[in-house]
Amino acid sequence: MRKFSSHIVGVDQGDVALFSDFEDEGDMWTGEGARLKRKKVVFSEVFDTAPAVTVALSMWDFGHDTNVRADIQAEKVTPKGFDIVFRTWGNTRVARARATWQAIGAISDDEAWDI
Q1: What is the strand order of the sheet 9-20 is part of?
Q2: Residue 63's CB: how many other CB atoms inside 10 A?
């Protein structure tokens, strides 16, 4: 469990298009080559420390003729941002995917005084 020493907690969130590989026969759609996509997210404001981040698929479009396999995670979380990482494997074909994310963490209060 993360406990915040500040009474100011910031929440940032967004929705990110991860890829659209069906348009240009990309690796996710052909089922060959690199089966990992990484998307950098920058927070709207800097947190005091690395926040707690959750990610989820908000839209997915998989090929109907293969098994649906997907893993999505937040990696390299810093006070400034993080990477959304989407992975698939086997014969899974993914046309496109979008992710939603939310970050919660301590932020500074410019009007607070250190005493």
Answers
A1: 9-20, 94-106, 52-62
A2: 17
**pTM, rounded to two decimals:** 0.88
Sheet of strand 36-42, all strands in order from the earlier edge strand to the far edge? 36-42, 81-87, 71-75
Chain segment 10-31, per-residue pLDDT in tens: 999 999 999 999 888 888 998 7
The conformation of residue 109, written as its DSSP 8-state character, comes to -
DSSP letter at 22? Answer: T
Query: Which residues have C-beta within 8 Å of that of residue 48, sequence separation ≥ 6?
Result: 6, 79, 105, 106, 107, 108
Is residue 35 within 8 Å of 88, Cβ to Cβ?
yes
Tens of pLDDT along the chain (115 residues) come to 777 666 789 999 999 999 999 888 888 998 777 799 999 999 999 999 999 999 999 999 999 998 899 999 999 999 999 999 999 999 899 999 999 999 999 998 776 666 5
User: In the chain, what is the greatest distance between 2 CA atoms, to the nearest angstrom?
Assistant: 64
